[in-house]
Amino acid sequence: MFKRSILAAALAASFSTPVVAASASDKELTAIREQIRLMKDAYEARLQALEQRVKQAEATAATAVASAQAAPAAPAQALAQQAVAAPAAAAAPAASNLFNPNISLILGGTMARLSEDPQQYRLQGFRPSGGEVGPGKRGFSLGESELTLAANIDPRFSGQLTFALSGEDTVGVEEAFIQTRGLSNGLNLRAGRFLSSVGYLNGQHAHTWDFVDAPLSYQAFFGGQYKADGVQAKWLAPTDKFIELGMEVSSGASFPGKERNKNGAGAKSVFAHIGDDIGASSSYRAGLSYLRTGAEDASGADNPLAFHGKSSMWIADAIYKWAPNGNATKTNFKLQGEYFRRKENGSLDIADAGVGAYRSSQSGWYLQGVYQFMPSWRAGLRYDRLASGSRELGGDLTLASAPILEAYSPSRSSVMFDYSPSEFSRLRLQLARDKSRPGVVDNQIFLQYIMSLGTHAAHAF
């Protein structure tokens, strides 16, 4: 179009001034033709440059376009973003931070008032995980802070590193992984250390939870959260309905497994998720996960019940969200729940009691609802319950040698209120009535703050 306009203008000028054209010398005509040629070449170069920029922009946005085609407020679009979006930096525009990582810092703290001594806390009927179990310590405490660095590495890969800084002045690697950016046919790969995608809550960082602590099921079966050191593959089906399939192969060092001095994978997991909108105001997501891992452990002062064998677990999860016309800024409601069932088969090494066969079948679940009744204000209820199920001990082992395994069904009821002045800050009050041990009721009061500094990725659906 630019070239035609130029030629038309030039021709119009030449035909509208016949006197000048007639009197122009051959030298002047040659100069005019040369100017027209230069102008054509310049516009041609600019058009080619613009076309190249468009192609680059389309390639960069390929992952986002494939995963979501509606507005960001739509619930179904949030599901697709969870499935294929890269971590924090991969979802951000590749502009000024192309070679500089986005940095975010989460600061948290808690004040706890507990009616029972937290050092005596245990989940009766379940073998200890050695992880983050219980309400924490009394009084004021610095919660776990998170420092995250994330960026696009190149057009094909992105990376993320998250440090966990505890109140006890220790630093650990929460996540450290690379991830592909929009492979063909809805496939994406992740490698390194990451929060496993089994279940629903496991793949989310603690500062995104709706309650101060993890459900009892996560504490009993994962010791808090299940982290995988390995490879993850996810496939998003090219359908209007959200359908995601995935698998993970990892070392199996996280509870209920244990680090093993062997080649190959120590744990394998598969999962499937499905979700969709229900009208203009509601959406849902449901999932089913299976995890199989092994452990080779030895008893000691820090591990009085050492398990050696195989552990397999099924997890069913579901979440329902409602917001008027999909706008969650003023009012919204969320109902969420998960069911766990674990079977273990192997041997148990009990300190001062010996080694014998061990088999168990245990379960647990939680259900919670959170209602935002006005902007910035929410209220929530949660109920947890575990069932110690069947436990069989062989050899000379008896429940008398491991009283923590005696049958019981721990439970807990919690209520919370929180206030978020902005999307970067939250203040929370939580009251809980914990019955994790027979004949003991722990009345708990928590005050918590969560503050976010820097560029942070959008939270998953």
From TrEMBL:
SUPFAM superfamilies: Porins (SSF56935)
Listed InterPro entries: Porin_dom_sf
The keyword Transport is annotated on this UniProt entry: no
Residue stretches in coiled coil: 33-67
Transmembrane segments: none
Statement: the UniProt record of this protein carries the keyword Coiled coil: yes
Alphabetical keyword list: Coiled coil, Signal
Source organism superkingdom: Bacteria
Signal peptide residues on this chain, from the entry's feature table: 1-21
Protein name: Porin
